[in-house]
Amino acid sequence: MSNKHKIRIGITQGDINGIGYEIIFKAFSNPEMFEICTPVVYGSPKVAAYHRKALETETQYNSIGSIAEAQEGRLNIINCNDDEVHIELGTSTAEAGIAAFQALEMAVKDCLEGNIDIIVTAPINKSTIQNEQFSFPGHTEYLQERCGGEEKALMLLCSGDMRVAVATSHMALRDIPEAITGELLEEKLTLLNESLKKDFNIDAPKIAVLSLNPHSGDNGLLGKEEIEIITPTIRKMNDSGIFCYGPFAADGFMGSGKYSSFDAILAMYHDQGLTPLKTLAMNDGVNFTAGLQIIRTSPAHGVAYDIAGKGTADENSFRQAIYAGIDIYRNRKRYSEARRNPLRKMYFEKRDDSNRLNLQLPDNE
Question: What is the count of structural domains for the chain?
């Protein structure tokens, strides 16, 4: 994007029967939001009008035909859907899935073409959005496919200084042990390390790795993945210059607050990592898709059919997703500019690694 523009954020409407438009309207009811970005909602002015009336909100928006018509200081909405799209608040419908996909597809196209800088996705219903073009368990896998090439995506949930990535994301529990391989963990740890440097401006990240089994496997009594796969991979990554520690038993690690000593955590599966983060930060957590050329964030919650149209949805997680996207965009620019300058000052963050060996021991709490 040209420097003459504020950062342009493409916002997908998500499921039109959920709380997507409510959190969008609430976030941009504050005029200060327009000082940091130009928001462009990929959705439907008709659907927006329906929600605006149902919520009795006074938030104004500007209907546009293309990204070229987006105006600074306004909430812009591009029509991606059929004008006859039907809204059933609080209900899962195939029509809502189609509308969500159409918005997402157009936003990703504009982002890949450089017309917008960041994508913030409102929640979708993963079952109704399925079609021939979207046969994925979630945004993360879809975006990896759309970006093409050899880029790999990493699901990274953030709240303040707490960052939790997952080795396996949207996968049935019974399939996880087989999926945990040394190659997979190397890939995810490399992606996480690079993201912490490039997207979060952390020069020498410290990464905690959780175990797969209870009590880190109890020396093989409860499973051998820690002995045969996870611990050898941690040692290999340390030898390559990536500072990671563990494996830590997930319950004791989170419950004791050890997570505050690390820049990020790699959990083995979805609920192992996301349950504690959402417990601690449900209303300000952010889902970030790391590893890709595009920047995509989202709130940490779902479509919330049970409160759709009632005006009670909390928009803070969505607002934090916008802030996070802007911070990541700026950090990437700084990172890129620093490496284009051959005379840049190189420095390495000093860390006290005196307890490194202790941290690497399995935590059998």
Answer: 2
CB neighbours of 148 closer than 8 A, spacing ≥ 6? none
Q: What is the largest CA-CA distance in the chain?
A: 65
Task: Report d(CA 41, CA 122) in Å as an integer.
Answer: 10
* 316 located within any domain: no
SS3 state of residue 221: coil
What pLDDT does residue 136 have? 80
β-pairing, 243-248 vs 206-210, is: parallel
Closest among 265, 295, 259, 350 to 120, alpha carbons compared: 295
Query: Which amino acid is it at 111?
Result: C
d(CA 12, CA 3): 24
Tens of pLDDT along 98-115? 999 999 999 999 999 999
Q: Which of 316, 258, 240 has the alpha carbon at shortest distance from 19?
A: 316
- The DSSP symbol for 40 reads E
pTM for this predicted structure: 0.89
Cα 44 to the chain's mean position, in Å? 24
Question: Is the distance from CB of 14 to CB of 303 less than 8 angstroms?
Answer: yes
Q: DSSP label at 256?
A: T
Are 237 and 194 part of one and the same domain?
Answer: yes
What does DSSP say about strands 286-290 and 296-299: parallel, antiparallel, or unpaired? antiparallel
Q: Which domain holds residue 70?
A: 1-135
Neighbours of 258 (CB within 10 A): 17
User: What number of residues does the chain have?
Assistant: 365
Lateral strand order in the sheet of 62-64: 62-64, 76-79, 38-43, 8-12, 118-121, 296-299, 286-290, 154-159, 162-166, 264-267, 206-210, 243-248
The first and second tokens of residue 324, run together, are 């996070």
What pLDDT sits at residue 361?
A: 43
Contact 247, 208 (CB under 8 A): no
Question: Tokens 């913030």 appear where?
Answer: 120
Is residue 83 within 8 A of residue 294, CB to CB? The reply is no
What's the pLDDT band for 349 if we cut at 50, 70, 90? very low
User: Letter for the amino acid at 364?
Assistant: N
Q: 104 and 178 in one domain?
A: no
The H-assigned helical ranges of the chain are 20-27, 45-55, 94-112, 139-147, 176-179, 182-198, 225, 231-239, 250-255, 270-281, 316-340, 356-360
Q: Are 89 and 188 contained in the same domain?
A: no
